[in-house]
Every structure is written in structure tokens, then in C-alpha cells.
Amino acid sequence: MKTVLYLLMVFVVLAGLLSSSAQALTPLGPPMSRLKPKQQSLGFLFASSEMDLKVSGYGLTETMKDTESTSYLVKAGYGVLDGVELFALVGVSDLSFEDFEGDSDVAWGFGSKFTLAKQGSVTWGGVFQICSIRSEGIVFVDVPGFGLQDIDIDAQIFDIQIAIGPTYTREGFSIYGGPFMHFVDGDLEGSALGETVTFDIEQKSEFGGYFGAMFDLAESSSLFFEYQKTGGASAIAGGIVFRF
What we know:
- Helix content is 7%, strand content 73%.
- The protein is mainly β.
- The relative contact order is 0.22.
């Protein structure tokens, strides 16, 4: 009986955290392929984002507001066809929301960029990517009748982005952007007294847009910065990419 009452209180504590707390967008870069067949690239990327997410479970549906995530990623790309490249992502990321500061954990992902058409200085194309982000931590809560208790939190999110749009290039400088779709699938677990409660996580808004600028530092390296925005999320991202 004591365990049941305690777990009910844990549910209430998690609901309070969720209702007052968000998370992840990852760098996209220009929506086009810049690699020739068999050409390779290596990039170092970062992203800082906030997001509103819908969380549901055990009859509870809440919105996590302003959950923060910071990611540092290494990106390896390979040109498979003319106008098509594949890439892999690996690095570290963390999640945080009210009263929860998650530890940095391994982040990984993969995706593709493709060129659709070129008209003068404008190239049309797209990008698809998926990234897994996980973070763990402990929340200490003073529960009436039980004293100070710790709740283990484990959050994992799969972040999916699909974008399409133009890239305008002139003398080593490019501006790019366009609409994108954003999907999140994940879960948030809270554990105490050997019991675990799990909430499903998904995005609050699927549609958004982004824009950015890219500078060629040399013939084979580029620096880019971008801003992403949906109805429930925003991110500042960027990085440097080397082609060889």
C-alpha cells in the first residue's frame, strides 16, 4: 500500500515537471548535395534548441514547455551519386527542463541530401535526417509523508527533419532556407522503489521553416550558421564542414 501511494505521488511530481517544462532540433545545412560521387566530407556541428512537446500516459496529457537541448555532433558524408549524398552523425547531447539537468549522453543519427535542379545561381534540393538524443539524471523531491526522495529520469527522443528549398550562391557565399517538417518520437521514464512509469513524447507542431548563411573558407571547407523555427520549437545551429 505504501508503494502504491508513493508511486501515485511520483506521478503527480512528474506531471508537475512536465506541465512546466521542451527539446531538440539538429543542424540541417543547405538543402542540397555539395559532394561529387565518391567525394567525402567531415563536419563539426552544434545546435542549441528549445521545444514544446506533448507528453501523454496514465490518463495524463501535458505540454512540456521550453525544454532545452545542446548537441555537439561529428558529421561524415559520402557522395553516392551525382546530386545525392549520405551522411552519419555521432556526438553528445543533453536535455534539461525545470528541476532536471540531464547528463550528456551519446547522440547519433543519419540522413541524406539531394539536389533536384539548378537554375543559374540558385540550386533546389532537400535534406532528410533522423537523430537519437538521450539524457539521464535524478530529480530530488520532498514528498509529504516520505521525506526527500530521488526519482531517476531517463529521456530519449528520436528527432526527424525533412526540408526542401533553394540555395543561392555567389562568389563563395550562400544563403539558403525553406519549409521543413519536424517529427519527434520518444519516451520519458521516471523510476522509484523499483517501479517505472513511462510517458510518450511527440512534437507539438510538425511544420516550420529555416534560413541560414554559408561561407566558403577555402575551396574545400565551409562555415555555416542557421536559425530554425516551428510553432513549438526554435534552434540556433551551425558548424564547419571539410570536403576531400
